[in-house]
Design goal:
This protein has 342 residues and is an alpha/beta fold. It has 2 domains: 2-154 and 326-341, 3-Layer(aba) Sandwich (Rossmann fold); 157-324, Rossmann fold (3-Layer(aba) Sandwich), CATH 3.40.50. Helix content is 42%, strand content 12%. The chain starts with a strand and ends with a helix.
Length: 342
């Protein structure tokens, strides 16, 4: 079978690209003959299944072509739907109003045509990464429950073994608040930095800017105090990322939503205290073992971050993630989902 993601995904890789590459490594380890698709070189003939990662407009004609060729299709949706998240899709007032209008229309009329609805009905199997996301697919797009199989996201077990020294030696900072993720408005780095003004704890913002959001990065730099260090993206396969988690005192994602945030799973392998958004799937994964914040409440955010900074690491959190949320476990569950349709 073949795996594929967004064509431009590697220009600003995020969670979907991490998931794609992780599945390409781990599915063969659980007995699935899987590899990345080379669309400019290969036809569908000879393959049983195409697994697409991400809800992208470009995936609709691909899924339709696969169906015409007699190839089954699965889709990891990597999506989230609520009014607050739609309101954050555009930096401009008109764009926000239009997005909110589309959401209200979708909530009232699930059969309303759209490329997204067509995509979800064109594939044979939908693989959301949380139960709450699965309910949204049924609620807003009329997808039959029988067509949905929840596959929880994972992290590499090697994140449990990170050592702080490599990161400390390269960047000269330790015992910091770590804010990982692509720099873009949805991730809310700007709101976090504004909330943390007046705090003298060291902060590391880890990630590259998403192309087109350079002005947002500039605003983040202006809002940052002398205690803030910006570090570019570290590849998940690079030991330096595990070292960053090991060197930190807490990991924060004050995004407008996370599903649940692969960086949160990676960090949790080491038991580091987590501060995560209430919106999204994070509570489904971590339960009472993380703290949850309203992304628009700067006072609460600062209080929870400073509280997490003083907390010790949690062996219970580390055990939970190592037991339930590895990419090996996700690969096994994905294989079982494939077997239901093949």
């Amino acid at each position: 079978m073949l795996l594929a993601g967004k064509l431009t995904g590697m220009s600003a890789p995020g969670g979907g690209e991490t998931q794609l590459m992780a599945l390409s490594r781990h599915l063969p380890r659980v007995g699935v003959d899987a590899r990345l698709w080379r669309p400019w070189e290969e036809r569908f003939a000879g393959f049983d299944l195409l697994h697409l990662v991400g809800s992208e407009p470009e995936h609709l004609p691909v899924a339709q072509a696969a169906r015409r060729a007699g190839v089954l299709t699965a889709l990891s949706t990597v999506a989230w739907f609520d009014l607050a998240s739609y309101a954050r899709q555009s930096p401009h007032s008109f764009g926000r109003l239009a997005a909110c209008g589309r959401f209200v229309a979708r909530a009232a009329f699930p059969k309303l045509p759209s490329w997204r609805r067509s995509l979800y009905h064109a594939v044979d199997l939908l693989l959301p990464n949380s139960q709450v996301e699965a309910r949204q697919l049924t609620r807003y797009f009329g997808v039959p429950k029988a067509k949905i199989q929840v596959i929880h996201n994972g992290a590499e077990e090697s994140f449990a073994c990170g050592r702080p020294e490599p990161f400390v030696e390269r960047f000269g900072v330790r015992d910091f608040v770590l804010y990982p993720g692509r720099v873009e408005p949805r991730k809310n780095q700007l709101g976090f930095l504004r909330a943390m003004r007046g705090s003298d704890v060291p902060i590391v913002v880890l990630g590259d800017v998403v192309p087109g959001n350079e002005a947002y990065l500039a605003a983040c730099r202006r809002a940052a105090g002398a205690n803030v260090r910006f570090v570019g993206r570290l590849d998940p396969a690079d030991e330096m990322l595990a070292s960053a988690y090991a060197a930190s005192r807490c990991v924060v994602l004050a995004s407008w939503f996370e599903t649940p945030g692969l960086t949160a799973l990676e960090a949790a392998m080491s038991g580091v205290p987590l501060v995560l958004p209430r919106r999204g799937a994070a509570p489904e994964y971590f339960g009472s073992l993380a703290q949850y914040v309203s992304s628009q409440d700067g006072g609460e955010l600062k209080r929870l971050v400073l509280d997490a900074y003083r907390r010790p690491r949690s062996n219970e959190l580390a055990r939970l993630v190592r037991r339930q949320f590895t990419w090996q476990a996700a690969a096994r569950a994905t294989r079982e989902a494939y077997e239901q349709i093949i």
